[in-house]
Structure prediction request, 263 residues.
Amino acid sequence: MFSVNVLTIGFFYSDAGASLGNLPRTIWGRFLSVDEKHRHKLNLNLLLIQDGERVILVDTGVGNKLNAKMQEIFSASLISFDVALAAHNLAPHDITDVIMTHLHQDHAGGIVSFNEQGEKYLTFPNATYHIQKQEWEIAKHPDILNRAAYDYENNLKLLDQTGKLNLIEGEFQLTASVSMKYVGGHSEGSQIVLVNHPAHKLIYAGDIIPSSVFLKVPITSAYEVCRRDTVKAKLWILDKIENQGYTLIYDHSTKELHYAKNN
Prediction:
């Protein structure tokens, strides 16, 4: 059995100027709705892949551990994994593999959760986590540029101590139909996920192309550690879409969830 579904587990708000980066407000203000804090709404669109006995989740969202300060920043509204996965007749313990595109808070926050007593536990206790080694190292030992982007203590330490890590370097084939490709750009170790199956040809690009606005190659967020690498990755992805029939899944769009050549 093979299936792919977009698993939307809620939304959060992000500063519009930072998200749109080098696109001036005089332009994005024409089409982007913002709140009184100049934030715009971003969905948490994850990817759920069932490939035989493997149940693969791509990214984990912001998680349920946001303190009062972080909740004020994000204004997150979340759907629990228990509820979201139940819609597919699954539970968190059924997840066998978690692929992390990168380890920023809005993608890695769900690796570890709080229970009703406020104790931390691994959200997906039976999963192996597939992370680029370069991303793991910068998240664990961030430099001054990356310090605010990662939270090792709350999101990664328990995984480091008790979880199953597969630290990879470059391309990696997880199953016959699912692979990862290192691209960098948005973060030191960003990777994208490719699904190449007779019924599905998909790319989940994480924050390289989070919504349709970023289909325009020069537009990048203010969070990129290397815009040149992001642009290189975007050109590679767009070629796959235009010439090889892949469909792109948007991780943060609140409107359309995918882009294909015939859109």
Notes: The chain has one domain: 2-259. Residues 48 and 123 are 15 Å apart (CA to CA). The first strand starts at residue 2 and ends at 15. The chain is about 25% helix and 30% strand.
